[in-house]
Amino acid sequence: MSSSSRTAWFLFDNGSVRADSTLSLRRVAVTLAERTGLPVQAVSLLHSSKVPAESLDGEPARLLEPALMEHFATFPDGEAVLLPLFFGPSAALTEYVPSRLASVRARFPRARLRMAPWLVNPEDGDCRLAGMLANQVRATAKLRGWNRPNVVLVDHGSPQAAVAAVRNHLGEQVRRELGAEVVALSVASMERREGDAYAFNEPLLATALRTPPFNQGDVIVALQFLSPGRHAGPGGDIAEICAAAEAENAGLHTQMTQPIAGESGLIDLLAERLSQAVQVSS
User: What angle (nearest 5°) sits at the alpha carbon of residue 219, between those of residues 215 and 223?
Assistant: First the structure.
């Protein structure tokens, strides 16, 4: 892959009001730039612009749509390659981003936009992300000195059944990867919308941690999250769910893994997704 000033390369996430999420995104972008030789920029879809610049090393967070508008204002017939830091086809990617790109195209009709695939496709049999999640479980078990813990793999939860299918797919892969290293593994969602139409998110993490065998002994809560933030970060929603379950049951001991943004294999996978994007234009 080669670069010119007429092409902008954007790694984007959903965004967070927590500074550590944006800082994590920036670290991934820097490492990916070093890996590919491309000037990859870190941007978010929403939220991150609310974080004070002083919490971000003095550099305000940037959002994708304004960044695209700025690039095409300089190069109206230029190109932008968009790389989503998302596990699967969330509504952000299937609904929100297309609507924002339509606005960009309406203002800059000669602009060229390429979208890279998201990280997990259950149809392709790629086990790399599951391997990263399994590595985090192993590292956490070693840190705590636990032998054959139970594991709950938790994602955010989504109104999109296809996103839950990605979680379930990863859960099966991680279960096979860990094998006899763990007693049992379940998947769970941090939260879900009300109603039977969204029951595919079940079980919730709060329910799983009150259900045998995950309500006793050593339980690793494996975070299917890419970066820390108000959900997966220290003192975040998942930590509070774990603490509440432990408070109800003195025999339960939980430990969260780290998000996987720090996994070196993630950079290789993102570089591959960039290569796929430049092969087919949107």
Answer: 120
